[in-house]
Design a protein that fits this description.
Blueprint lengths: L5 E5 L3 H11 L6 E5 L2 H11 L3 E5 L7 H15 L4 E6 L4 H9 L4 E4 L4 H19 L1
Helix pairs in contact: 2-3
Amino acid sequence: MAQNRTILLADDEPHILLALEYMTRTIKDVTVHTATDGPTAVDLACKELPSLILMDVMMPQIDGYTACATIRRDWKEKNHTGQIWFITARSSNMDNEHAMNVGADHIVHKPFDPDGLLKMINDHLTEISQAAA
């Protein structure tokens, strides 16, 4: 089984997207795609089938909740098992529950610790690499 070391970053805040892109491009043998709105995130997720998506909840045109649910439906048809992590400033139990109900695997709260997030990403990529071996 081939390893999918592709990450999709989706956030409409340029400084957040740039920080995430800078962090993830330091990871060896990873392809990074970016999106600044919901429709682009959905399109790239369905086309590229990344192993990991880091997606903002509040994005233009299609919010992260709707994008996540749409991506999950597409991935289910393709038998793809990538993960979707929301990046959000929202931290209420209702928001967290809604995120999980639409298919989020993890919630990263803003402001996030860049080193901690990079470790989580690396751990996830290591897990999928080991599973593929």
